[in-house]
Automatic annotation (TrEMBL):
SMART domains: PLP. This is Myelin proteolipid protein. It is found in: Membrane. It comes from Phoxinus phoxinus. The chain crosses the membrane at residues 16-40, 70-92, 113-137, 204-224. Its main location: membrane. One of its GO terms (biological process) is axon development.
Length: 245
């Protein structure tokens, strides 16, 4: 076998769909976990500096932020390993493996393993659709805050009207209703929107939201890939046709 034929054989056995999904999943998880972790830290700083005077008012929020940051560590580790396993499963079910190890056979164990991957990936898709939806909440909060600040700057010549324009963190469940002050209004809010902390936190939440979307897309791609692999293992394995997803 010449060098060209050998290269074509190797390239023909690459599970391109699984490879693209793995890269997309790694990128999405890195964005979501990295940016989300830092965004939570910056959010706590914003709440502490501008929305709450007493530490007891946001101590529950601080515990939740710490808890979610530990969850992020677990998510990053789990998805790194799971994506590697799915990619390995994609390589294993290509024609390159069949050509290397002889006649391809669809075993009960192989079908069971493929079914397990399909079920787990489907559950993860549902979970991450929920995560994707929830990650839009802080983006919506900061979007409203930025729009309110733009309105304040536009009406800066009428101080009596801008004093009624506020962002109340208690309405979003970030603070208890008895927290003081719990909200920021007028030119104070406008000054908050000009700080580095605000822009950094806003951008980090947008990046985390985009990362969650990329992860959902990667998991949907994995679902298609694993389902295709299972179908070929189940129905076409004995005919010598092997999957390439």
């Amino acid at each position: 076998m010449g060098c060209y034929e050998c290269c074509m054989r190797c390239l023909g056995g690459v599970p391109y769909v699984s490879l693209v999904a793995t890269l997309l999943c790694f990128s999405g998880i890195a964005l979501f976990c990295g940016c989300g972790h830092q965004a939570l830290t910056e959010s706590e700083r914003l709440i502490e500096n501008y929305f709450a005077r007493d530490h007891q008012d946001y101590i529950t929020l601080a515990y939740l932020i710490e808890y979610f940051q530990y969850v992020i560590y677990v998510l990053a580790s789990f998805f790194f390993l799971y994506c590697i396993v799915l990619l390995a499963e994609g390589f294993y079910t290509t024609s390159a493996v069949r050509q290397s190890f002889g006649e391809f056979r669809s075993t009960v164990c192989g079908r069971c393993l493929s079914t397990t991957f399909i079920v787990i990936t489907y559950v993860l898709v549902v979970v991450w659709l929920l995560v994707f939806s929830l990650s839009a909440i802080p983006v919506y909060f900061f979007y409203n805050m930025a729009n309110t600040c733009q309105t304040i700057n536009f009406l800066s010549e009428t101080p009596s009207s801008i004093s009624q324009l506020c962002i109340d963190a208690r309405q979003y469940g970030l603070l208890p209703w008895d927290a003081v002050p719990g909200k920021v209004c007028g030119m104070t809010l406008s000054n908050v929107c000009k700080t580095r902390e605000f822009f950094l936190t806003y951008d980090l939440y947008i990046a985390a939201f985009a990362g969650a979307g990329m992860t959902v897309l990667a998991l949907l791609t994995y679902t298609v890939s694993t389902t295709y692999n299972f179908a070929v293992l189940r129905y076409l394995g004995r005919k010598g046709i092997s999957p390439r997803c």
